[in-house]
Amino acid sequence: MARAAVPGRLTWRVASLAAASDLTKSARSLVFDVPDWPGHLPGQHVDLRLTAEDGYSVQRSYSISSAGDRVELAVQRVEDGEVSPYLCDVLTVGSQIELRGPVGGWFVWRASDLSPVTLVAGGSGIAPLMAMIRVRAAEGSRVPFKLIYSVRTSDDVMFADELRQRARDDGGLDVKIVYTRQAPEGSPEPPGRLGVATINTHAWPAEFNPGVFVCGPTGFVETVSDIFVALGHDPRRVRTERFG
User: Fold this and answer.
1) How confident is the model at residue 5 (pLDDT cuts 50, 70, 90)?
2) Same-domain status, 121 and 239
3) What digits encode the pLDDT tens for the residues 128-154?
4) What is the pLDDT of residues 100-136, one digit of tens each?
5) What is the C-alpha separation between 33 and 31, in angstroms, rounded?
6) Is the link from the previous residue into 102 a cis peptide, with omega within 30 of 0?
7) Which helix (H) or strand (E) holds 151?
8) How far is CA 224 from CA 35, 120, 126, 143, 206, in A?
9) Are 181 and 66 part of one and the same domain?
């Protein structure tokens, strides 16, 4: 369970990689054991720091995907990046990195909020939303969730098996995958960008006063959040997290 967490924890901790697995051909799940971890709320992130032998260091922020005491990060490999290729291709179980957090207090979902929830993810923006889905299940919450997940192809769906299982076994979770480049064979819909029609059909309507969480690349987030506001949603209920 996620314990009460103070936003903006600034203490660097040495975290050990406890497990790693492929999420897609270009993304990895990294699960860390973090000494004295204070717990986190779903939607928060951590700062991660790598330091070379010559003293050069680089930092990146990653959203937390896990519920519980371990910290899981979903890392999308950026081929010319400084950090993600190392995390995806070099870091091995038992390796250590520096990590601080949890950070953030706005883009979080709390199980005490009983309003229905719409989650919208673009690509690796699914990471913090998975924490919300998992905490909801761990808390035994019956708050209804709808997830709209935009990806290029079926090979780009992170947490695919888990999402499929949760959508099948949990009547309170509805999952809609939108394919922008190539839809799976037999798909009833052609590939295309996430737009007004899909959101109007698969998100909770404005009159339900849902909580809305949108995470993804900057352009995606701006477009999607504008659609929600145009559909009558209270802008204060549309929370966004962006990258890139």
Assistant:
1) very low
2) yes
3) 999 999 999 999 999 999 999 999 999
4) 999 999 999 999 999 999 999 999 999 999 999 999 9
5) 7
6) yes
7) strand 145-151
8) 38, 8, 14, 23, 14
9) no
